[in-house]
Every structure is written in C-alpha cells, then in structure tokens.
Amino acid sequence: MTTTTKDSTFRRQLLRETYRQVNMKLIPENQIDFIFVFGNAKSFDQDYEVAFEEMTFPNDTFITEREENMNDGKTLDWFMQAQSLLWSKHPTRKGERCLNYKFVGKTDEDTAIQLPRLSKLLNSLPSNESHYIGRRAGVSEPRYMAGMLYIVSADIVDWIHSSPIPQGNAIGHEDHQFGLWLHLGGWNEKLQFHSLEQFHDVEETFWSSRQRVSDKSIVVHLCKDIPRMFQCFGDLYGTPPLAVKRLLSPVSLKHRKDRLKELFPSVESIALEKDFKVSSDVNAAAQIDAVLIKNDVKDVLSTIIATDKLMETDWIKIARHMMLRFNELKREEMWLHVLQAVVAMDVPSSDTGWEKDVANRLAAAAKEKGSPLSWEKVKEIRGY
Q: Which of 147, 161, 218, 264 could share a disulfide with 198, CB 3.0–4.6 Å?
C-alpha cells in the first residue's frame, strides 16, 4: 500500500529497484512480485501524479476507484484485484486454469522484506492447507495480523472475491477487518495461523512487536525516514559496495561528523585510515559510527565497566543502539545512554525502562566497588 507523498515516492523507488535486483538472483518460481496500490486521487494535482505513476510503471501499479484512504476499503480493493491475477487459462487444455500465485499478501511501503527468506518460508508450507501468515497484532479477538505484512494462500483470496462477507465489512481498521472477514467466514477453525517473530518492527519503537534485526529476520517495519530505510535494508541485505564508497567519501564523513560532534567531541580528530575496511555484508553505517564514537564512548564506559574484553563487534552493537536513538541522546546523560546500549547487547528485544533500571544498577555497583566492574559482574547484574 502506498501514496503519492514525497516520502512515499522515494521509498517506492527504492523498493522497486531493490526487489528487482534481489528477484533476479532467485529462480523464477521463488520470485515474489510486487504491485503498488494507490487510492484514487483527491485533488487536481494528484490526478496527474497517479496518472504519471500508472503511465511510467503500468505493470506494477494498481489504482483503486476509492479515494486514497487507509481504512475505507483499499485493502479489499487490492485483494479483489489480486484474485484476477491468480489464475490464467491453461495453454492447451480448454476450460482449465493454471495457478499463477500460491500466495497473495498486503504490506506497507515503510516495510523492508528479505525476499529469499520469505520465499523459503512460503515454500516450506504445505500446499494442501490454508494459510494466514504474519505477526499477530495484540491479543484481542478476532485475531488478526499487523499491517507490516500479512499473506494468505490462494484459496482465501478466491473466497474474498466471491463471499459477501468482505464486501459487507470493508470499512474499519484495515488489518482488523481482514481478520474479521476470516472469523465471520469460519476460516479460523480450518486455517493455519502463523504468527512469526521474524516479522517485527524496528527495535527503537515502543510497539510490542519491536525487535533487533538478526539473520533470521524476514520483515522489518516502520522504516519511516531515509536513514531508517537505509538501516533496515542494510541490516537485511548488507550494504552494496557503491553505497559503502559513498559513506566513506570525505564529504559524507564530514556530514556524519558534523551531526555527531556536539555529543561526541572527539569525532573531529578521528581520521579513518585509507585502508579502513567496511564489510558490505552488514550495515556499513553502524560500522562507521562505531569507529567515530568509540573513543568518547570508551572514556565514559571505562569508568564503570572494564572494556578490555570488548571486541569490535561489541562496539558496533553499542554504537548501533545509540545511533538508532540519536534524537534522544543528551551529553549530560551520556553515561546512561552508553550503559543502556551495553545492557541491550545480544538481547532480541528490550524495553527502555528495563535498560535504564539495569544501567542504574550497574552504575551503583561500580560506585560502591570504587572501580570498574568486570564483565562477569556485568553479566550477573544483567541476568544473562
């Protein structure tokens, strides 16, 4: 689901090209096709915007007859349209059809998807069963999946197209309504409901489905702005060499240092060696940030925790945690921010309140001891 706003246009361009390149590396039967769904224009200018979109990308653009909306039936319009794409005529046997797609889903444009992992997941599901795949939203009934991405098998798409239930319950919170359709249609007793932790929000949000990206993550949601979108795709796919080169350019490094120097004064004196290596297999931005802020962070941390056992990967984890929360950082509370990052290391998901509580206990223990804590003591206080 997308719109014609400036941010949406940028994200859409990135998604189109990224997924095109990734799909090219997959065999045809494992590829995942994307259609960008717009509501109809609400103004004179938007008429031209959606017309240009449809004209430029006719094969992956669908514009509903309803005005642009979130909860007034846009999702239903998409699944009705998707049913027409499910089937094609058999090339030789008259009256028979071929199934083009085993699954159809709905996702948001601020979602980054690791296509090979998603394809592997879908291929592992029994084809003789009905499936509803996503991340459950809350615990309310009827159960439904969060809007980051949910996918259903082809038989459910056919049912949506033919049943009066979705048409009669189109208006309302789009994702909740989808779950309501299945509940009213009696599907809950016979479908496989897959609520997956590999589908999650970015770690820095307050939503309960927040999680740190790992090598098992399939979907990362709430990649709202350009830096976050870069972060999300870098975490899922690594950073392309061209982008690494751009991030390491003198101008880009100056911009990065200008952003950091008020909170981390020593960054201005950091000169990256000409042979400085950044792995393109993981997020390059986090690696660069770790090098730039390491001295300041180490000065703060070494008064509370012995840092001799920390590896470069640990410094990257600390830097990543802090940079994802950059707008919340305060110079006078830097000790707390650094300790929160240490507390959160290697934990799939952590609550800010818990991080602060443990951070304060670490600081109190170091003060009582009169010297930096050993890493063993840190683990004892953290509880893992």
A: 218
